[in-house]
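Lecture 7 notes: from sequence to structure.
We start with the chain below.
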Amino acid sequence: MCIHIIITPDNDWLGNDETFLEVMKALVNGKHAIEMVTLEGHYRELVCPPAVLTKFFPVILPYVASLELQSIPDFPLPILASCPKLKILQVSDTDLTLKNLDTFSNHYPPSSRPRLHHLEHYSAVDAIRTLAKSQSPESTMTVELSTLQTLKVHMYDLEDVIVSQDLIEKASGTLRNIFFLSTDNPNYVPFTGHINLCQVRQLHRLVLDFVVGNKTVKEDPLAGVNSILQTIRTLRILDITIHDQLSYGHSPEHFIKADWPTLEREIKRISNGNALDVRIDLRYLIPRNVAKANVHATIEDVFTPICLKAQNFPHIRLETGFRIDNFHYS
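Predicted structure tokens for the same chain:
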């Protein structure tokens, strides 16, 4: 069962509203226990008087396997640490805090750390830093990151990438799926030199969805991808989506001149004769006064030789695609 709670400014009702608490207890004790909880704060702090600490959170914490935190400043990290079944954590526009640790320790005595399997973050750099810094062996007021199997990073700027590298290193022995996603964010976020996956020993799937350069930064469309691939030991699924637009001064020929030979070489090396699924998708924006047909033909010229070469390596299953969209100048 899933519940979605919107935190109001006077959110001490979480611990004082007896009707609400009775409903929560009934849900917890019902046939379908609460496993997924979303707390949406609208940038309001979570009020934690004694009633909230002693009545509300103890009702749900033992059962929560999936928790999503949206727009909450200074959410207490010990609350996460008190969810023994927590496996999935999504954090967006939220900070985590260790302030008033003694207060929380009194209500939530140390226990074994929750062992995260899935972590997703968007615009939550400080929260991720707090999680990473709280990983000392003697600390119980945190969650275990070394068990992560899936990491999803919604990139807004370079800091999202940098803090994620720290997570990757802490979970290098268990990570199987890594996603770096632009999530409709038009900002250019550089990969080159910032992502190193050489210690990830069981990587199964890598998804890279990113914007190529901007009006001031001119970069080979494949520079970041190739930089990451050069650090990979093993992989089974590679999914690449490249976003670009003519207004950046990048003509369609920009793709033809990209470093495809290095990409081809790294894919062969990583595959090493084993099955590898590769998908490459180009998304290109052009003004309405530019004919799509010419752009279409140019991008087809990019993929035709790549697909022909891939036929010589039956263990590498290559899928390509592209989409050309119009936009209006503002």
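Points to note: The mean pLDDT is 86. The chain has two domains: 1-118, 148-330.
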